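Tutorial handout. Part one gives the primary structure; part two gives the three-dimensional structure as tokens.
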Amino acid sequence: MKAAYLQTISLVERLHRQCLEVVKAELDRRGIRDLNNIQALILYNIGTEELSVGELTHRGYYLGSNVSYNVKKMVENGYLIQERSPHDRRSFHVRASDTGLEIFNSISTLFDAHAEQISGGVVSDEDLKVTTATLHRLQLFWSSPMPMGGGVNPAA
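Part two.
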């Protein structure tokens, strides 16, 4: 079990890095040099919504300081519009600018093409559903408090 567990962790990490490389290649193909792959994924996760930085951190599971830095850079480079919340003057909301929406649409189109390509027999819809369910259970396991050294996981 331990070997399979460690192999899964390693594979998830490699898949994430490869996904970032695919996004970077798309940015390079489009000649975009003032936006990195993480920032492009943040734009993708914002999409057409308006979110607080806190919501973005929660939804995207990014580290808070990294989100703040990346949001600042994307505002400076014209990909995001940042406005103070009318209800809480301490909070800021962000939304994609027209340029940011172009990136969102580009990444969305890329992911649509990937979904179409893999549905041609590479991976079945059922395979993806089972994988997603398994990874979700791992996420719940990691996010549940558990004593060091093992013990019974309360989420199990």
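Part three, for discussion. DSSP finds six helices and three strands in the chain. The mean pLDDT is 89.
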